[in-house]
């Protein structure tokens, strides 16, 4: 059984990015599914994404959330 992989978006064009770990150039081809947010953030041209929209960023957890004090 394989684990479900959530992808952020599909490329509509070939793009050149840097590998986030090794910092080496990587070429991603049109039609590839992007699963790594560190790569997706490097692709800033909306026309490179299928549908013309970059993937929606996940909202960061609120740092100011406080636990309620017991009454």
Question: What does it look like?
Answer:
With 71 residues, this protein is mainly beta. Helix content is 6%, strand content 17%. It has one helix at 37-40; strands at residues 9-10, 15-18, 25-28, 33-34. The strands form 2 sheets. It has a two-stranded antiparallel ribbon. It has a two-stranded antiparallel ribbon with strand order 2-3. Strand 2 and strand 3 form a beta hairpin. The chain is elongated and about 60 Å long. The N and C termini lie far apart (48 Å). The relative contact order is 0.25.
Strand content: 15-25%
Low-confidence stretches: none
Which structural class do you get from the secondary structure elements? mainly beta
Major beta sheet, strand line-up = 1-4
Counting DSSP E segments of at least 2 residues, the number of strands comes to 4
Q: What is the count of helical runs?
A: 1
User: Main sheet, how many strands, which sense, barrel?
Assistant: 2 strands, antiparallel
Helix content: under 10%
Provide the succession of SSEs: EEEEH
Mean pLDDT: 84
Q: How would the global form be characterised?
A: elongated
Distance between the termini: 48 Å
Calculate Rg over CA atoms.
Answer: 17 Å
